Amino acid sequence: MVPLSYYLVLSAILFACGVAGFLIKRNIITIFMSIELMLNAVNLTFVAFAAELRMLSGHVFVFFVMVVAAAEAAVGLAIIISVFRTRETLNVDRVNLLKL
Amino acid sequence: MSLHLWIIPLLPLTGAAINGLLGKRFPKAVVNAIALGSTAAAFAYALWVAVQFMGLRADQIPHIEHYATWMTAGSFTAEYGIYLDQLSLVMLLIVTGVGFLIHIYSVGYMEHEGGYYRYFAYLNIFMFFMLTLILANNYLLMFVGWEGVGLASYLLIGFWFLKDSAANAGKKAFITNRVGDFGFLIALFLLIKHIGSLQYDVVFKALAGYPVEASAGLLTAIGLLMMVGASGKSAQIPLYVWLPDAMEGPTPVSALIHAATMVTAGVYMVARSNAVFNRAPIALMVVAVIGTLTAIFAASIGIVQTDIKKVLAYSTISQLGYMFMGCGVAAYGAGIFHLMTHAFFKALLFLSAGAIIHGIGGDQDMRHMGGLRKYMPKTFWCMTVATFTIAGFPPLAAFFSKDEILWATWASGNHVLWLIGLIAAAMTSFYMFRLWFMTFFGEYRGAPAEDSHHSHDAHGGHGTPHESPMVMIVPLMILAVLSFVGGWVGIPAALGGSDRFDHFLDPVFHSVTAEAAPGGQTTATPAEGRAEHEETSTELLFMAISVGAAALGFFGAWYLYYKRTDLPAKMAHAAGGLYTFVLDKYKVDEFYGAVIIRPIVLASTNILWKGIDATLIDGAVNESAAGAQDVSDGVRQMQSGNIRSYAGWVAFGAAVVIAFMVWKGVR
After folding, report:
1. Which of B1, B71, B116, B191 is deepest in the core (most CB within 10 A)?
2. Cα B323 to Cα A66, B275, B516, distances in angstroms
3. Could you tell me if A92 lies within 8 Å of chain B, comparing CB atoms?
4. Single pTM value for the model
5. What's the ipTM?
6. A22 at B interface, C-beta within 8 A
7. In degrees rounded to 5, what are phi and psi of residue B159?
């Protein structure tokens, strides 16, 4: 049996990768993917604890996260398409109409 | 029985409201109808009231009407109410009567002026406040009228407000009056503190319990502070400086406000407060001295003035001085008597002067007049009556009133004041006949019209001098008749009369005293002391002396300004510096300017304006605004509009929270 700490460390690494990608990438699609990565890192933690503690609620929570993530992906991609149509770019640094 | 006296002040107020708010759209005839109608109604009602008043029993006088409570503060109450006794009845008839005549005259005089409706609205509002002042049944309501007439005076002096000198004169009048009002207010505060009321009946009754103050005490202080107020409103030394400048207003205004009615408010107030002054001989003496000094001081300035209205203005100050002189020797009846005759003849003088100015196209300089007798005979005759009466020739009105004051002064033992008053009377006669000769005799010296561009009352060029329209002449004639016969109500006993005017007013000035001294001695007022040693033959002698002084003035003026018209210039040249000193009004304005106004202006500019207002208050506001802006400038940098920097802040924030939790958790 793989110890719990392994899962947690993997999850932390994945989450850190997500954060790093979120911060340094310019392409909005990549940023979006980084968000998904972070969500899944959290999911991994949930299922790891659920298996360890033998409790079902962790699994259930993961399903909820997946549903939300799917919905978010649908809305987010729609926004991205809309942004691309108007701005003709996917570079977030150039989507800065709110800037003073 | 209620006489519904509130109607009287309300009538002109209604006129003012209608004309002032809507008058702009009315044709002149409607404005006239409203303004004159409301004043005429007030006068008619006042006459009716006078008739009713005569039917009152002695114990029904004063007739007091209470309408509503104005304010209550602790035990102090002020109310809306009216106090009608002989004194306020006389004032009421003077104000409404003379006021109505001047309204009529104004229709002719102001015909060519802009702001016609505004003028009449102001005039009516003046009437309202003046009537409030004289009819009020307490000092506080009187003070409302007192301030209100000041406001109306300010508005009317500055009627031609586009002209700098008029606007400044208005300000000067208002501010000078504020100085006096300050004294009056303090007097009222003292009354509230020590008597607890400002209702006339309560105050007078309470004062009856006070003894005559041998040395300066509470009543002396109140009296002196009241005199400060009176000297502001009635243009006495040292606050008289505003009145000559007030001549910037239209001439009918000078006649109504700055000669006949408003400026007498101070005299009225002193007479009304006789219960205070009778118990404060020191204050009374100050009143007499100030009055006498003002009388001769202003008369001496009047001698050298060349502006016809300025001469009359100084003459007004001088005559007001006489009234205070009369009040100051406790001869209040004589003071009020002179107030009444003065209202007639000074209104007549000003209105005649206005007719002259109107007739020659706006010039006010007497050196440009002369020979006007031919051109405006009616004005000439009215002016002649006025001149002879102010000079004090019998049997015209002012002879009786002025002589009564002089006689009362002598009889009270103030022989020096009497002498000064007599000299001032001679000077009055001199400068008035100087005006008369310069204006109506000799040859017309004015330019044949056109050059009215620097005139005060710009009526445009008229060609040769001409008589004024009937609407102006009729009020003159009525006033001339009044100036002639007005004194006959007070013919002294020494001349076979019965001194009816004095006896009519007597209850006002004696009733309280009688209550004060049921035993009949101890608190004898100076007035009562005076009445006892009047001797007919001496009084006749003094009348002869007064007439002699008037005649002296007449012949002096006749010699210098009719017979030898070259002499005055030579004399002025010979007098040199003294002449210019007097011509510059003794440099009093310059003195006040240097000693009072300049330091105040400098201190206000440098400390209050630039120091406190601009630096401290504005500085605090501006600095806090600038500080907020600086902080915002810094914080604004976070709001870059760059998505990744927002993400960075989110991540940073999360990291901080986690770090904090970890650090906490370790403990």
Report:
1. B191
2. 106, 18, 26
3. yes
4. 0.78
5. 0.77
6. yes
7. -60, -40
